[in-house]
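Dig into this one:

. . .
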Amino acid sequence: MITSPIYVRELPGHHRLEGGQCSNCGLRFFPQRMVCPGCRSREIQSIKLADTGKVSTFTIIRVAPEQFADQAPYAVGIVELDDGVRLMCQIADCDFEKIHTGMPVRMEFRKISEDGPKGIIAYGHKAVPR
């Protein structure tokens, strides 16, 4: 995975777990968009999303894509934040046998991948048990 550092720096909401909320219909979403996926309004405001939630569904990745091969096996899931926004992320710091739907988690900003030993490091959010 090659990530442009300039592109990533231009997404400050990505680092602060910010999403969007439509001023017209109130829908919250992540990542932030220019157009509301619910009502197509362009009146979107930035909001800080909840940093806690619960696992809605998950799977264990045993045969990973090349850029994540050194991390396999690992868990990935859909997390529903306490404010209703859903996002997909890795579930970390937990035995696979202990992960279950409804498991309370908190979001942490961590290293996601690295493009080679001297490459660009990509950061993002991972869910960890509360």
Remarks:
- The chain has one domain: 5-129.
- The longest strand covers residues 104-114.
- The beta strands are 18-22, 28-29, 44-48, 52-61, 74-81, 86-91, 104-114, 121-129.
